[in-house]
Design a protein that fits this description.
The chain is 75% helix and 0% strand. It has helices at residues 2-15, 17-22, 31-49, 55-69, 76-87, 94-101, 103-110, 115-141, 148-174, 184-205, 207-212, 222-241, 246-268, 280-295.
Length: 299
């Protein structure tokens, strides 16, 4: 898997140094697929978020990216030209430009994975792109979601499916070392809730900023969603405690602890008015707590 290793090295470091450093905490069996899935999702997210192309153009490019990731390689040359010459020049961050210009390299790396891992990567990207397309189309017509079910579906498509992917990949690459096989369905559902909870925290934290962009992801009381996010973070901690190695527990537990700390800050603030930010000292405290809880072993 030399090509995949290259992608998870220099290119990943260029795209996101923080994720490059974080991924080292994962077991080596899971690193390549997690890294490549992350970069493909970052690439599609860059297209979805750019303001240099109109909504229909972005939707068309996202559909083509989904088709090419799924294996329809006849569309790859045209897509590569569009990404390099039409989308990338309009991006403000050099890392995003680099990723879109190297998108073909990521596609080649995808082909180096075995069939099962490749299928998992393709599945999660298909779901994520569905969420990104829905976001573009829905908010071109309305400035708020129409019901709670749309919020629930959206959080699955852009984050809950990542928890599902993480779980399926863990069982695929590590077997019972990842977690007891008898708990697979329970772990999958907990992973989905965990991912949804992290996205809900993002939504609640960014309400003011999103509103300024004409996007309201909640149409009912924010406190209700804050309570749900907290329950989902507790599910995430339970999920993490049940994983089979220290590295897995630590890597999975840290976002939940930071998420719970963010929820504490959100409860003290007025939702939708200003953005809360965790202090560096609080992040270090979460790191230490994650180490302590992870060393205690499986629940």
């Amino acid at each position: 898997m030399s090509q995949a290793t290259d992608v998870t090295g220099d290119l990943l470091k260029a795209v996101s140094r923080s994720f490059y450093l974080t991924i080292r905490f994962l077991p080596k069996q899971m690193r390549p697929a997690i890294a490549l899935g992350y970069m493909l999702a970052r690439a599609t997210d860059s297209v979805a978020d750019t303001s240099s192309a109109d909504v229909q153009k972005r939707v068309d490019v996202l559909h083509t990216m989904a088709a090419v990731i799924a294996g329809q390689t006849e569309q790859e040359p045209a897509l590569t030209r569009v990404l390099q010459h039409e989308i990338a020049p309009g991006l403000s961050h050099e890392s995003e430009k680099t990723l879109l210009c190297e998108f073909a390299t990521c596609l080649k790396a995808l082909e180096t994975f075995d069939a099962e891992q490749r299928s998992l990567i393709r599945k999660v990207l298909s779901i994520i792109i569905e969420g990104q397309v829905w976001d573009l189309v829905a908010f071109a017509e309305h400035d708020t979601v129409q019901n709670d079910e749309q919020t629930h579906t959206y959080t699955y498509r852009v984050a809950g499916c990542v928890g599902e992917f993480w779980t399926d990949l863990g069982y695929t690459t590590m077997g019972e070392t990842f977690c007891a096989p008898a708990r697979r369905e329970l772990m999958t559902q907990a992973g989905i809730r965990y991912g949804r909870g992290l996205q809900l925290i993002n939504i609640l934290r960014d309400m003011e900023e999103d509103a300024a962009r004409g996007r309201h992801y909640l149409c009912s009381e924010p406190d209700k969603w804050l309570n749900r996010a907290e329950r989902y973070m507790n599910d995430g901690l339970d999920y993490s405690r049940r994983l089979g190695t220290f590295k897995l527990r630590f890597a999975s537990m840290l976002p939940a602890l930071i998420g719970k700390k963010t929820i504490q800050l959100l409860r003290k603030s007025t939702l939708g008015q200003g953005k809360v930010k965790i202090k560096r000292s609080a992040v270090y405290a979460c790191l230490l707590k994650a180490v302590f809880l992870s060393l205690r072993g499986k629940a």
